[in-house]
Amino acid sequence: MVDLMFRLLIPASVCKKAQRLALITAVTLGFGSFLASSRAQTPDEVLTTSTALVQLNVGVVDKRGQVITNLSANDFSVFEDGVRRPIVHFEPTEAPFSLVMLLDTSGSTVTFRQQINQAALRFLDALSPEDRVAVVDFNGKGTKLDLPFSTHRDRIAYAISITLQTGKGSTPLYDALKFSLRELSREGQRRKAIVVLTDGLDTEVRNSDRAIVSRASESDVPTAIKPGNSPQLASVLSDADHQGVTIFPLALPSGDPKRLPLPDPAITAMYEAAHTRLQMLADRTGGRLHEIRRLDQLSTLYAQVAADLRTLYSIAYQAPNPGVRDGKWREIRVEVGRGELVASTKPGYYAK
């Protein structure tokens, strides 16, 4: 809501007729200025996506695993709970993305920031010139927007290099994902993705996990944590579903439960739960989890994510009962009618 208020200060000695004329002039000019500013908005600021539409990013391969990128909307069929739904919007694989480069600058990444910077620059080089990129980082001081969405690669590269020079402390991963989704919500009807570099060990969630294992018996510790029950994860997945955002986690080796120096059952359980949640972020949004085994793989894996983005079609369809928010699971299946092609996308969503 825009609230316009105009105040006109006129000396008491001026006649009433002059006061009325001046007031009319001021209001007319102010309203004209408001109209001009409204018309100056860019399309991304005024385009909205109906919440009744279910949005998917879909990859297609042949029986040999080769990516197929030359399909049209007529080649696809979409089913929700087994019922075919009409496709109302379609974007080919070459359509541009708006994506957030989300960087973990907590204490666990301090020793290899230079490698992160080099890998991120290679990622930028692999993107399409029309892709819009925002840079967001998170650490013990919270989440920060380092650069709003831009196509200027020099500005993006500079923002990344400056961001990686500071940061330490805790890891508010899920707060940062929520922040990134809010930024993406302002990008209108563009295709959307988040590429997040992290070890997955969110501080708040890990504290909850620690409380769970502390109450469990010794024999129950390995299975005491139910990763999918995390309210923080559920909130992120719900927001991503509503916008059709695909999440690509790049899992740092510091969060790998197989690399723990001491085989403590409780710590292992917490690390395994964190890793499972990263997998769920990818699976539930139609993305892909890339595990970084060695730091020299960073550049290659960032480039692979850029290549993954260029293989995705975007499809939107009308939900059969858009007004029903019963919290139940809606299963999604996408089929391709050409040859022996296989489509992959998110498996479904909760109607919330």
Key words describing this protein structure:
14 strands; Immunoglobulin-like; disordered N terminus; single chain; 3 domains; 10 helices; alpha/beta; Rossmann fold; globular; 4-stranded antiparallel beta sheet; 352 residues; 6-stranded mixed beta sheet
What is the strand and helix layout of this fold?
Layout (H helix, E strand, L loop, with lengths): L15 H24 L3 H4 L6 E9 L14 E5 L2 E3 L1 E5 L5 E8 L8 H14 L5 E8 L2 E9 L2 H11 L9 H12 L6 E8 L4 H13 L5 H4 L6 H13 L2 E6 L13 H21 L4 E2 L6 H12 L2 E7 L10 E8 L5 E3 L3 E3 L2
Parallel strand pairs: 5-6, 5-8, 8-9, 9-10
Antiparallel strand pairs: 1-11, 1-13, 2-3, 2-12, 4-11, 6-7, 12-14
Helix pairs in contact: 3-4, 3-10, 5-8, 6-9, 8-9
Folded structure, characterized:
This protein has 3 domains: 1-40; 46-93 and 312-350, Immunoglobulin-like, CATH 2.60.40; 97-309, von Willebrand factor, type A domain (Rossmann fold), CATH 3.40.50. Helices cover 36% and strands 24% of the residues. The protein has helices at 16-39, 43-46, 113-126, 153-163, 173-184, 203-215, 221-224, 231-243, 265-285, 298-309, and strands at residues 53-61, 76-80, 83-85, 87-91, 97-104, 132-139, 142-150, 191-198, 246-251, 290-291, 312-318, 329-336, 342-344, 348-350. The chain is globular and about 55 Å long. The chain starts with 15 loop residues before the first helix and ends with a strand. The model is unreliable at 1-50 (pLDDT under 50).
